[in-house]
Amino acid sequence: MSAASWSTRGSIAVITLDNPPVNGLGHELRRGILDGLDRAEVDPAVKAVVLIGAGRGFSGGADIREFNTPKMIAEPTLRTVIRAIEAGRKPVIAAIHGMAMGGGLELALGSHYRVAAAGAQIGLPEVKLGLLPGAGGTQRLPRAVGVETALNMIVSGAVVPVEQLRGTALIDAFVEGDLLEGAVAFAEKVVAENRTAKLLSDVPVSYPNAEGFFEFARAAVGGASKGYPAPLKALEAVAASATQPFEEGLRTERALFLQLIDSPESKALRHAFFAERAASKIPDVPEDSPTRPIRSAAVIGAGTMGGGIAMNFANAGIPVSLLEVKQEALDKGVATIRKNYESSAKKGKLSAAQVEERMRLVRPTLSYADLAQADIVVEAVFEDMGVKVGVFRVLDEVMKAGAILATNTSTLDVNHIAGFTRRPQDVIGTHFFSPAHVMKLLEVVRGAKTGKDVLATVMDLAKKLKKTAVVSGVCDGFIGNRMIEQYSRQAGFLLEEGALPRQVDAALEKWGFAMGPFRMADLAGNDVGWLIRKRRYVEKPHVKYPRLADRVCELGRFGQKTGAGWYRYEAGRRDAIPDPAINELVVAYSKELGVERRKISDEEIVERCIYALVNEGARILEEGIALRASDIDVIYLTGYGFPPFRGGPMFAADTAGLYNVVRSMKRFAANPHGDPGFWTPAPLLARLAAEGKTFNAAAETRP
Ligand SMILES: NC(=O)c1ccc[n+]([C@@H]2O[C@H](COP(=O)([O-])OP(=O)(O)OC[C@H]3O[C@@H](n4cnc5c(N)ncnc54)[C@H](O)[C@@H]3O)[C@@H](O)[C@H]2O)c1
After folding, report:
1. 451 close to 425: Cβ distance less than 8 angstroms
2. Distances (CA, A) of 555 to 247, 282, 504, 527, 581
């Protein structure tokens, strides 16, 4: 069956794009459209052609199921289909409803006329995958909507309602009522009036002072897109539309497109795109697994995390009870929630009515009896096994049968917690990140006895809460924090050996991190790591930890919240100001250790910190804590400020080549300071490096 269907309305042929869910322009569909165009061309009864989409919209663009497959570039390509429209003798009218994105919009732009239904949205989002529109979009859109508007759309990848572009050559007519009827009537009119075929490629672009404008735009786009080559290349392609004849502009677009498709940045962004899709797939829990309905929720503990978690439920329209032991703590928690909502309202993100609606969904209580009927309860009390166990014992007593009992613990053993209930199959970890109402990442911790339906329900719930969920097995720190501990250790050793906090942060920020490790620690609170380390000193006395961080804490420098940490902070500001007192402390500490400080290159800083993540990631993968390398990448991209154009730590290692990663590790192991044992490559890493393989085999992340 073809993905495009053919029918006629009198003298008008109708080619319907029918490739659910979004009429992605896969090989079958492209061939179907071309067959339809060819048929129309030779059928004397057909005077014009309407292209229309079945279902939700015209077309969402490339069919992502074909990414990384030969079908993606197999003939007929989209460029061939558009050439056929342009070479044909009969007018083609694209009828747009819902959305026309990427290649979908390029197909419409290649048609002679475009009609649209109200509410349709268009966009060329290729730049978000590190690419640019490769089927004439950069040449035709400026001819349709003007150079400046087109440039903004293409460089940002923004989705724009067609109504906003009324009055431009983009849409020839807006159709009220049935789109197909309207499009056919429009086509009949074109035929009846014997209008000459009208192509955007024939429209000259006149843009006075193009050079001056593009010079200015280059500076603006270049400044805003550090680390990302696509926006600037897209700009050059749009510039070609204003300075070169159409055919030459197409060739320029093609050349720039080919440069990008092979760029490491685009490969990383495409990897991230597929990795996020793959993360929701659990091999032994198929997507159609039964789930439990979640109509109401409860949160225990209205502190930093509990309040944010409750907001997630309220934002999704799910009523949520919020329980504390003392009225004062409850009031404080509720007040913080209101403050957060009101600050969103001030920014125009919520109306006053929405604030009240969400506050109504949050139901503060001091009594467990009020939670008993909730479908899911998330515990977010102090990180103390004794306190958690107390809470879970009560939950086991009061919660209705079938309720999901979730814990937000960041380090404690979920199996142990589950063991204190008579229903371990209902217990699961939901590890939110701070601030919980903002951060997208949710680590879903699957206990040894967690029921498959419970896991499926929480993965489903995550989507409703607009979170990116990644499954983790049970281990200390789960995936993200277990790895970050090794990264922080390296950052600490680097200080002992010769670097200063600002240099370490700057090197990693230059590499692309949103924030270096010391600025990050100051933001999160140095006391948090201190508490964990104190536990580690007892649990793992054989592991060497850089103790400078403890000295900083002993001075009461917990970070931003105390006005000083690894940096100093001025009242009311968040800028991290290097502090000579810390530099002196660092240098004196090296002396105390008897370490002769040396100059450390930025490259060494980056490699040691990133490869520390990679080596621990490899262990996590091997132990089956993570289901796939790309899941680790998703965690770092969505929860830890890892630069998207690097694709995540495991992808970055693949890009560097695992052989080279192992070689660097051997070099680090020879360093007399630090923890040489840590640099023994994880067996999985050593094996893949020896076999010339990668962590992220392409097939793993294909949808
Ligand atoms: N803060 C973070 O960045 C972060 C991130 C991820 C996970 N976590 C985890 O989330 C949990 C909560 O952390 P937090 O930072 O929100 O702590 P917090 O101290 O801000 O809040 C804990 C709240 O729980 C309340 N509480 C304590 N015992 C209780 C009990 N028995 N019944 C009801 N309420 C009780 C306290 O009054 C307090 O309001 C911890 O397990 C922590 O490890 C924290």
Report:
1. yes
2. 68, 46, 21, 11, 11
Is pLDDT at 697 greater than 90 in this prediction? no
Q: How many CB atoms lie within 10 A of CB 542?
A: 5
Taking the C-alpha atoms of residue 570 and residue 576, their distance in angstroms, rounded to an integer, is 9
Most distant CA pair in the chain: distance in Å?
A: 93
> Which one of the listed residues 66, 86, 126, 276 is annotated catalytic?
126
Q: State whether the beta carbon of 301 lies less than 6 angstroms from ligand 1.
A: yes
Spatial strand order of the sheet with 121-123 comes to: 99-101, 121-123, 159-161
d(CA 491, CA 505): 9
Please tell me the residue having the least CA distance from ligand 1 atom 29. Answer: 381
C-beta of 688 in contact with ligand 1 (< 6 A): no
What span, in angstroms and rounded, lies between the C-alpha atoms of 397 and 352? 39
pLDDT tens for 229-251 read 999 999 999 999 999 999 999 99
* Per-chain mean pLDDT for the chain: 95
For the CA of 302, the closest atom of ligand 1 is 39
Determine whether 578 is exposed, middle or buried from the number of CB atoms within 10 Å of its CB (0-12, 13-18, 19+): middle
Is 496 assigned a catalytic role? no
Burial of 446 (0-12, 13-18, 19+ CB in 10 A): buried
Helical residues (DSSP H) of 319-464, grouped into ranges? 327-346, 352-361, 385-398, 414-418, 452-464
* Three-state SS at 569: coil
Task: Please pick, among 41, 86, 106, 193, the residue that the annotation labels catalytic.
Answer: 106
Which has the closest alpha carbon to 666: 590, 607, 623, 621? 607
C-alpha span between 694 and 107 (Å, rounded): 37
52 lines ligand 1 (CB under 6 A): no
Angle, helices 230-243 vs 210-224, to 10°: value is 170
68 pLDDT exceeds 90? Answer: no
Tens of pLDDT along 96-109?
A: 999 999 999 999 99
251 membership: H or E segment, kind and range: helix 246-261
In 3D, which of 652, 643, 616, 634 has the Cα closest to residue 279? 634
- Asked if 682 and 615 count as a contact pair (C-beta separation under 8 A), the reply is yes
Residue 324 Cβ < 6 Å to ligand 1: yes
pTM score, two decimals? Answer: 0.92
For residue 162, give Cα distances in angstroms to 108, 114, 134, 159, 176: 13, 11, 21, 9, 14
- CB atoms < 10 A from the CB of 702, how many? 15
Listed residue (560, 555, 557) closest to 570, CA to CA: 560
Structure tokens at 668: 């680090």
Report pLDDT for 1.
Answer: 53
What per-residue string of b and e applies to 622-659 under the rule 16 or more CB within 10 Å gives b? eeebbbbbbbbbbbbbbbbbbbbbbbbbbbbbbbeebe
Instruction: Answer yes or no: is the C-beta of 325 below 6 A from any ligand 1 atom.
Output: yes
408/28 Cα distance (integer angstroms): 46
Q: Residue 174 and residue 179: Cα distance in Å, rounded?
A: 9
Asked if 454 contacts 432 with a C-beta cutoff of 8 angstroms, the reply is no
Q: Is 202 left (phi over 0), alpha (psi -120 to 50) or beta?
A: alpha
